[in-house]
Amino acid sequence: MASTTDIRKGIAVLHKGQTWVVIQAQFVSPGKGSAFTRAKLKCLTGGQTAEVTYKSGEAVETADVQYRKCQYLYSDGTNYNFMDNDSFEQFTLDKESIGDAAKLLKDGTECHAMHIEGLAVSIQLPPKMDFKVTFAEPGVKGDSATGALKDCTIETGLTLKVPLFVNEGDIIKINTEDFAYVSKAN
Asked: For the whole model, what pTM was predicted?
């Protein structure tokens, strides 16, 4: 059992007798009335989604989840293929199961696969990852005092905002939760 404060993206809950994965969660505290958590769930068996509202303090039954270390192998356009690091078995997840993490996957990426009832249902990337900058707009000299940002593209094709001193060819560290620049990698 968990409380509504524990509901976050990636956890598995039991809802209407089935196992669902939380794909979005938002805590709402309105000016009037009590706080609640609005969650978007995806059913493991049927694949359908549902919007559920949990009142603050309400008990939520969680499902048994295992995390196993895995490695990203390749994408065939619609599916993403991984290999379990212990058993060396390969498994496939669709783009919806991967979510935004697909924007940061590169060959050989080490991550954790979330398994529920023996099935791989999603992945969890490390909190921070290093990427090579493949394109960066030139910074304007003398504009660094304002904390200005510019666009850059990393090796996976993702475009993000970085400080002006980041150049093409640099290796940068990115937060995998919000796709924000963290620092230059050493």
From this structure: 0.71
